[in-house]
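Lecture notes, part 5. Sequence design as translation. It can be helpful to think of inverse folding as translation between two languages: the language of shapes and the language of residues. The source text, in structure tokens, appears below.
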């Protein structure tokens, strides 16, 4: 069947919609006849942020779609998810560095037009709030969540909250980790015979717990609560992490045995999301420092506490902090229990 599509000659300006984009800057100072040269910079910087947020959401939605299926770690889909995650990392690095351009504006430059912005505020970036929600930040865990009700339009608050009814990236990654097939009995028969410690838990975790304790110095023995270890990895009680014991086991196992070829990609994937968490925090820190320099202790244009609010959000809005807790329980490579051949063979590339 002949396609009805006809080739259309594209022109650069038309294809990119440049007339709309380049004619979308309307400095309020110009409208009011006030001399405020840097308002144009302020507008363009924030429009650029919103364009990049749109691209991040485009990448994130595709990753969520991939993880919403029963993802095969050895499938092209997983490589695609990792590649797009890497792209998000690079975009966030760009967003952090973009603050440097905004910092060329001095306090007096900003004061030339600051009062014209009120009550608009970067807090009202709906795309960024949706991004946080899709990653896994719940409204109840947001810093000063009361601001959302009166800072944002009702339909925007509703839209952000609606994200909480859908599977977040954090939840999908947790589910993927729970499906890791490391603990099948067939992989551990020889290990069980060699390391029979008489416990009721999996022989690997019996051995690992013993090895970990033996590696702690006296100060660490006093500071580290092994009850938390038992709750997190053995499911012995209530844990202080959102991850299940199965997911915690998989995260720690991937980190410990990352040098096996088939664990490298899962390791890189987890590390990239920790890096994104860190970059988002760094972006908030740069923003907070700039605001302190620009307006000191004054309130934000939207009515928040300004730099104090940004500091609170920076400290509280980590999405993947549960994963970083687990690094407490790593041990050196030379102390790692040797994996049984039945399992180690499965973690290598198969000979063709």
């Amino acid at each position: 069947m002949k396609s009805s599509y006809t080739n259309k000659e594209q022109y650069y300006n038309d294809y990119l919609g440049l007339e709309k984009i380049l004619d979308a800057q309307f400095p309020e100072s110009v409208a009011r006849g006030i001399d405020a040269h840097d308002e144009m910079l302020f507008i363009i910087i924030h429009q650029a942020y919103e364009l990049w947020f749109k691209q991040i959401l485009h990448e994130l939605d595709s990753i969520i779609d991939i993880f919403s299926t029963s993802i095969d770690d050895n499938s092209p889909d997983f490589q695609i998810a990792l590649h797009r995650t890497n792209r998000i990392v690079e975009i966030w690095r760009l967003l952090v560095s973009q603050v440097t351009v905004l910092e060329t504006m001095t306090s007096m430059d900003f004061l030339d037009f600051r009062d014209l912005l009120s009550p608009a505020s970067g807090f009202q970036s709906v795309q960024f709030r949706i991004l946080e929600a899709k990653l896994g930040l719940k409204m109840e865990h947001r810093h000063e969540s009361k601001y959302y009700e009166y800072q944002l339009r009702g339909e925007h608050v509703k839209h952000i909250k609606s994200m909480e009814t859908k599977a977040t990236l954090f939840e999908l990654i947790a589910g993927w980790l729970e499906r890791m097939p490391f603990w099948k009995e067939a992989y551990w028969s020889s290990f069980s015979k060699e390391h029979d410690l008489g416990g009721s838990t999996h022989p690997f975790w019996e051995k690992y717990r013993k090895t970990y304790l033996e590696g702690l110095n006296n100060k660490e023995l006093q500071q580290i609560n092994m009850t938390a270890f038992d709750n997190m990895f053995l499911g012995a009680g209530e844990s202080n992490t959102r991850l299940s014991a199965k997911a915690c086991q998989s995260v720690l196992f991937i980190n410990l045995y990352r040098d096996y070829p088939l664990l490298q990609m899962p390791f890189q994937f987890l590390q990239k999301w920790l890096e994104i968490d860190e970059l988002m925090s760094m972006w908030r820190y740069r923003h907070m420092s700039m605001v302190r320099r620009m307006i000191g202790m004054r309130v934000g244009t939207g009515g928040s506490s300004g730099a104090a609010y940004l500091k609170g959000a920076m400290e509280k809005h980590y999405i993947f902090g549960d994963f970083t807790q687990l690094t407490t329980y790593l041990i050196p490579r030379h102390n790692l229990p040797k994996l049984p051949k039945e399992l180690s063979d499965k973690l290598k590339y198969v000979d063709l």
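The translated text above is only one of many valid answers, since several sequences can fold into similar shapes. Residues 139 and 145 are 7 Å apart (CA to CA).
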